[in-house]
Amino acid sequence: MQNLEYHKVTIDDIIEINPLNRRFFLRYDHDVIFKSGQFVILDFDGLNHHFTTRSYSIADYTKGPVIELCVVLKKDGAATPLLFDSKPGDTLTASIPQGRFVLPDEPIKKPICFICTGTGVAPFRAMVKDLLLHRDFKGPIHLFFGCRTQADILYREEFETLAQTYPNFSYIPVLSRETWEGAMGYVHPHYLEVFRDKPDAMFYLCGWTAMLKETRDRLKDLGYTRADIKVEFYD
């Protein structure tokens, strides 16, 4: 186990989003202080793998002893099958929140663009709610969310409600394997259209490595620098 502060936590609830994605609500014995975008490390004691720990982003911005994780099942993985076999009332070993993939502490004066795939949307859900509900951020916020089908759009109703409520929040789910009334294909043409003239902006990227590397390269081709782009890989 890494040299971190760990606690025994209880699974308060588990919500199945679809067969491969579930929301896990973990209760600590104290209020959890964290920044939106951070993650916790779960230690699976006795895991049949070289590493017994796995990291999961905190998927909501709340105050209190309960945090939410949004996890995708890797059927051939070592850890998520164990997690998906758990039930409310079971205990896990979890670290205190970690990570620097967070919003600036100082007031933000630039538009913010979040680009993600799959459960990479989890830290962005926390960040978007932090910006809109807690910081009263009035600048433009863009969320480009690459998915295969409508069934894969995590937190869809919540994001749609936020977009309807806050005119500065632009929510663009993009489907690659299903025809529908919304954006289709891959996410790249959609954010490139918005930022092709290189307006001042901050970018946060989270998802599969290949997509993130391509996104970072395309943003650099527009003229954005490493200082403008923060990346969190989850594979």
Secondary structure layout plus pairing:
Elements: E1 6-18, E2 21-27, E3 39-43, E4 53-57, E5 66-72, H1 80-84, E6 91-95, E7 112-117, H2 122-134, E8 141-147, H3 156-165, E9 169-175, E10 183-184, H4 188-195, E11 202-207, H5 209-222, E12 229-233
Parallel strand pairs: 7-8, 7-11, 8-9, 9-10, 11-12
Antiparallel strand pairs: 1-2, 1-6, 2-5, 3-4, 3-6
What can you tell me about this protein's structure?
The structure is a single chain. This protein has two domains: 6-95, Elongation Factor Tu (Ef-tu), domain 3; 112-233, Nucleotide-binding domain of ferredoxin-NADP reductase (FNR) module (Rossmann fold). With 235 residues, the chain is of the alpha/beta class. A hairpin with a 2-residue loop joins strand 1 (6-18) and strand 2. The protein has helices at residues 80-84, 122-134, 156-165, 188-195, 209-222; strands at 6-18, 21-27, 39-43, 53-57, 66-72, 91-95, 112-117, 141-147, 169-175, 183-184, 202-207, 229-233. The chain is globular.
The DSSP helix count reads 5
Average pLDDT rating: 95
- Name the helix and strand elements from N-terminus to C-terminus, one letter apiece: EEEEEHEEHEHEEHEHE
Rg from Cα? 18 Å
CATH topology of the largest domain: Rossmann fold
Question: How much helix, percentage-wise, in residues?
Answer: 10-25%
Number of strands: 12
Proportion of residues in extended strands: 25-35%
Amino-to-carboxy terminus distance = 20 Å
State the major sheet.
Answer: 6 strands, antiparallel
